[in-house]
Amino acid sequence: MEVLNKVRKGLDTVVSGICIFLFAAMVVVGSYQIITRFIFNNPSTISEELLTYTFAWMAMFSSALVFGKRDHMRMSFIVDKLPTSKRKVLEIVIEALIVAFAAIVLIYGGFNIMGLTMTQKTASLGIMMGVVYSVIPICGILITIYGILNIIGLSTGQIDPKKEEV
Questions:
Q1: Dihedral, CA of residue 83, residue 156, residue 64 and residue 163, to nearest 10
Q2: How many other CB atoms are found less than 10 A from the CB of residue 100?
Q3: How far is C-alpha 127 from the chain's CA centre?
C-alpha cells in the first residue's frame, strides 16, 4: 500500500504543478491583455483566446485534483446517517460510478471529440481544436486513476469513509 500512496502523492504533485503553472500563465496573459487594452489602446485577440483555453484547462486539471482528494461537493446528509459498513460500500459504489463516468464520457467521448476537431483551427492562435480538447481525455484518465486509488484505499481501510479528506 506504500506504493499506492507514492503514486497518489506523485500525481498530486504533478497535477498541482500544472494547475499552478496554468494559473500563473493566466495572470501574466491577463495582465498583458489589460496593459494592451487600456494603456496602448490596442487589445490583443490572441491573449483573450489564450486566457479562455487556459482557464478551461485549469478547471479540468483542478477538477481531477479535487476528485483525487475526495474534496468535491456532495450532499452527505443521507450518507452520514448510515453505519460505517454500509457507508463504506456506498462510498465504493460512488467511486466506481465516478470511474465509469470518467471512462465513458471523458476518456471515450474526449478522444472522439479530439478526432472530430483535429482539422479545425482556433481563430487567433491557429492551433488545432483537437489539441485544445485533449485536456478532456487527459483529465478523464487522471480521474479514473484517482478513482481506482480511492476504491483501493476505501477497500483496504486506508481511507476512512467517515472522513471527508484522504
A1: 40
A2: 12
A3: 22
| pLDDT number for residue 163 | 60
120-149: pLDDT as tens digits? 999 999 999 999 999 999 999 999 999 999
Backbone angles phi, psi at 91, to 5 degrees: -60, -40
CA gyration radius, the chain: 19
Contact between 99 and 151 under an 8 Å Cβ cutoff? The reply is yes
Compute the distance between CA of residue 75 and CA of residue 48 in angstroms, rounded to an integer.
Answer: 36
pTM for the model: 0.89
Look up residue 138 and give its amino acid: I
Residue 2 has pLDDT above 90, yes or no: no
For 100, 132, 143, the CA distances from 96, given in Å and listed in that order, are 6, 28, 11
- Burial state string for 50-77 with b = 16 or more CB within 10 A and e = fewer than 16: bbebbeebbebbbebbebbbbeeeeeee
> Which residue's entry shows cell 484518465?
141
